[in-house]
Amino acid sequence: MSSARIFSRIIGTGSYLPGEPVTNHDLVARGINTSDEWIVERTGIHARHLAPEHVSCSDLALEASRRALVAAGKEPGDIDLVIVATSTPDFIFPSAAALLQDKLGIRNGAAAFDVQAVCSGFVYALAIAEKFIRSGSHRCALVVGAEVFSRILDWDDRGTCVLFGDGAGAAVLAASDEPGILATAIHADGSHSGILSVPGQICGGKVIGRPFLQMEGQAVFKFAVRVLKEVAEEVLAQAGLSVVDIDWLIPHQANVRIINATAKKLALPAEKVIVTVGHHGNTSAASIPLALDEAVRAGRIERGDTLLLEGVGGGFTWGATLLKF
Ligand code: UT7
User: Pick the catalytic residue: 119, 138, 140, 161?
Assistant: First the structure.
């Protein structure tokens, strides 16, 4: 007996940024020893959004997911797999995915779990969901990147606090007769864990270590550009495509200099690169689906376009997804 091959396809996207933008000038006004000029020149970031204290990761995920479900023409009850990529979940447990499942009113026993791969989280989650769907075990996945990185920033460390923001992005991935996702690759090298980390934990009710993000910026920069080029070439080779076949590169939105350097190394023209970091900063696992959704809603990305999504982050982790939208 033979069965038709199952593919997976993104059928809807959504995103959400909390509150009003906080500009670089606002940060200076709040007493941070920085300048708009320094931040814009080194990162391309003009503003970020910071979630109010009562708003959690799963709240941001909820807003982005509702928009993605509407765009996909799906009801919460159609979802049988919920994956949230986050490093800033509401609690140690239950997972943000389980909380999101409840907030959406999904009552069908859909599997729900978080993926912790920092800024590569969304491409990790997409790779996992794609395999679940291709196996035939699940039909319709909600894949979300959601973060409240403002909670793990040391606002006295100007080298990191100006770079990050809060937000969420979501995609509904459904079984399809046609591709869809063409290739995925995910990687990690834990020997570089020290250059980007939040080295704290809870033990006996106390915080042990330092629960704030710390980073060796230049080491991260070099590592990121190298692996983003390599993993892009890896998924292109898997699919038998080349750089000229890419309609849009949607990279992790950390920094325009990393994005530009990666595009240059790939010989990809700047006009094929989606860049949204300027108005939301680095939102870690949320950044790729945020950028994707904004470009879809702006009418830049259209059905049938070939997209390369790729991310890199703490761990170190990195990965890419090549897909027909
Ligand atoms: O998801 C991955 C996330 N990580 C990243 O995207 C980061 C990758 N790294 C970078 O983008 C860059 O390394 C940074 C933007 C983080 C920093 O740029 P840099 O050119 O590597 O600067 P630096 O850390 O070498 O610092 C240069 C100077 C220092 O002053 P001195 O020692 O030369 O007097 C810093 O103290 O810039 C100073 N500086 C600042 N000045 C104003 C550092 N942060 C700030 C700031 N405002 N916010």
Answer: 119
